[in-house]
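A protein record pairs a chain with a discrete description of its three-dimensional fold. The following entry can be read in just this way.
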Amino acid sequence: MSTPPRRPARPYRRPTKDPVRFLAFQALRAVDERDAYANLALPPLLREARKNGMDDRDAALATELVYGTLRWQGSYDAILAECVDRPLREVDPPVLDVLSLGAHQLLSTRIPTHAAVSATVELARVAVGDGRAKFVNAVLRRVTADDLGGWLERIAPSYDDDAEEHLALTHAHPRWVVSAMWDALGGGRAGMEALLDADNERPAVTLVARPGRSSTDELLVAGAEAGRWSPYAVHLAQGGEPGAVPAVAEGRAGVQDEGSQLVALALANAPVEGDDSRWLDGCAGPGGKAALLAALAAERGAALLAAERQPHRARLVERALAGNPGPYQVITADSTRPGWQPGSFDRVLVDVPCTGLGALRRRPEARWRRRPEDLERFAPLQRSLLREALRAVRPGGVVGYATCSPHPAETGAVVEDVLRRTRTTTPAERVDARPLFPGVPDLGDGPAVQLWPHLHGTDAMYLALLRRTG
């Protein structure tokens, strides 16, 4: 019996590098390998790509692929786990990044199914090799069996059976974060879903016009839109490049969330008794609030001391404050072990290190990177900074305790504990911060203020104001 002739082997085709998807893959690898933040890792990659001819449309797609994949990482992992014949932890991280990019294109964009699969397989050939590309192709074919809504129905329990797990999977947040935010927000399902949805929206780029150095009118002429609450805020159109705005390039304006602006303004406008010439920012890095406070202080003839413990962050503060019209000083110092005399300042701000759960819109990877034990790690530092801030301010002066987190363990619990422990050494009283946020609705029962992305369009900034009484 004769053997049928063998088909000639197909000639090998070199993979084609898609610059958009390869750039997105590089950004995800930086986040995974170096614990980088996407909002820091992506811009230099985009700048280099633009030099090589990438246009605005492709840059926008690359940005969406990176941020969208990171936002939905936990839910995509749960879906991919249903499509892989081994535990997901056994899949090499670069391969998993390729799969996540493919899942995002298939489940959350308008890219046609065939195009999404073929482009992701081609990326796999370039990034992880031909052999693994076959695995990627097989897994993505299984992902195409349903749309995002269908997959979420499969993997998530019903709301009635397990409300927190349902919200965690259908809105792409870790369960412990959902639980913590629910405790802080209160209320029912509608408010929580609105908050989680807001966390999954990419925020507009917000600029601050630094008083005495630029104006919102100048920024509006450059194509921005007026902010909602801060008199110094403007929003760039989606995809706008801050560095292309002359005032930003020259340091007379900066990128700063409107919530951060409101916190600095509230401290600056809180009533103090007596002198008002010495201000302190005890946690000044990277410099956004310090730059706004320094400009406001200069208008009143006051001086700001900006202290930052990390030398590289202190250099960022110096850069942000360079050119300020009034007196200021930037020092590298640990505000838990200050070198200044007690009672030296009239106003003190401590924007303490925290989990950053209030900025998940801008740093979507943080939701998967943080762990509940991080709360315990930050707690002693937060209390120490507030305790020393109360020592640094004179009687009649005010302290602002701020944090970019809505977690009760980082907000009200810290303030209550420190006030209780210092009532005999550095007694202080709470100041109602709500009147210092003029026009801003939904500020709760006070006296502290908690901002929310879904209610105010800002990061979830918290501010408690305390007046030293003796």
